[in-house]
Amino acid sequence: MAGRFAPRTTAVPRQRPAAPDTSAALTRLWTPPGPLDLRLVLGPLRRGPADPAYRALPDGTFWRATRTPAGPGTLRISAAPGGRIAAAAWGPGARWMLDRLPTLLGADDDPDAFRPRHRLLATTRHLRPGLRLLRTGLVMESLIPSILEQKVTTDEAYRAWRLLLRTYGTPAPGPVDPLFGRYGLHVMPDARTWSLIPSWEWHRAGVDAKRSATILRAVRVARRMEEAAAMELPEAMARLQVIPGIGPWTAAETLQRSNGAADAVTVGDLHLPGIVGHALAGNRNADDEEMLELLAPYAGQRHRATRLIMLSGHTPPRRAPRFSPRDIASL
User: Fold this and answer.
1) How many Å apart are CA 110 and CA 186, to the nearest integer?
2) Does the record carry Nucleus as a key word (predicted)?
């Protein structure tokens, strides 16, 4: 009898697999202004080895499914002869994605603005000439998975992203490659769909009430959040942190991808201060304050400096215990 008086919840239906899209793709060839390593540039978009919205295939092609202002779209990117980049796109967002292909791949980035003050960074930059900072121009698609990654293991966050996209996302337009796996590519849900995901589905995905509430607050003002993509870094950081539950860590992780923010430092990370301290000063016990002091000579390029440090491989062996996956039923 108690159940008959329970409040009703309007839940969105789970998505069914879509038939393959056999419509012709829109295509584009683009010549980048310098060396370009697609794996390094696009890698930050990957949220785990089975990310429903991203695939890097053995043949050197990269696939990205996203929700653009024009609608869902799928983008395939690969290297072409002559140092060019070949792209094909499907769906309502195809033209939007191709028009912004250079921006996505770092055409607006200026690697020459970085002046290494440490031998390690100079050597790493020399060995990685194809590193550019991408810019998606889309805030929510980076903000939501960044919220999911707050204070949990990466495996937990990746699992939540994977389950929520497969359940409530839109099957991506375009061809279906067997290497995508049994579920194929998915475009993340729109703001309304995120807002209608019932509490038990967040629980099933391992997302606690604090993170799900933060996502729900963000999607209610999704348009205002997206405006941050056109802002300078200080204003964009402030715009995102208006939302309770979004702090400097989440804002920086988002804007590094959406805005190509070369100076967005990930403050509040468990491991990054020790990694930077070890690489630049031999101090694996550095905190955020010391990390910022060490990165001060790279003002304007501090995120690029941390990317180069991570790519150098000069990181300390882990001593701090990893986060253990939590049982949110006990919270």
Assistant:
1) 32
2) no
Angle in degrees, CA 158, 211, 74, rounded to 5: 45
From the list 40, 13, 51, the residue with the least C-alpha distance to 131 is 40
- Tokens 């980035």 belong to residue: 109
d(CA 174, CA 182): 15
What DSSP designation does 80 have? E
If DSSP states are collapsed to H, E and C, what string results for 217-279? HHHHCHHHHHHHHHCCHHHHHHHHCCCCCCCHHHHHHHHHHHCCCCCCCCCCCCCHHHHHHHH
Mean pLDDT of the chain: 91
Task: Provide the CB-side half-sphere exposure for 180 (13 A, CA).
Answer: 22
C-beta of residue 162 within 8 angstroms of C-beta of residue 169: no
Query: Is residue 54 a contact partner of residue 46, using CB atoms and an 8 Å limit?
Result: yes
DSSP string, 18-52: PPP--SPPEEEEE--SS---HHHHHGGG--STT-T
Round to whole Å and give the CA distance between 91 and 21: 9
Residue 82 has φ and ψ, to the nearest 5°, of: 80, 20
Residue of 47, 329, 324, 46 lying closest to 206 (CA atoms): 329
Q: Which amino acid is at 172?
A: A
Q: Of the candidates 312, 308, 311, which has an alpha carbon nearest to the alpha carbon of residue 114? A: 308
Q: What is the pLDDT of residue 326?
A: 56
The C-alpha angle 160, 267, 105, rounded to 5 degrees, equals 70
Alpha-carbon distance 290 to 83, whole Å? 41
What whole-number distance in Å separates Cα of residue 197 and Cα of residue 148? 15
Report the first-to-last Cα separation within the chain, whole angstroms.
Answer: 28
The two beta strands, 186-187 and 170-171, are antiparallel
User: For the sheet containing 84-90, what is the strand order?
Assistant: 26-30, 84-90, 71-80, 62-68, 54-56
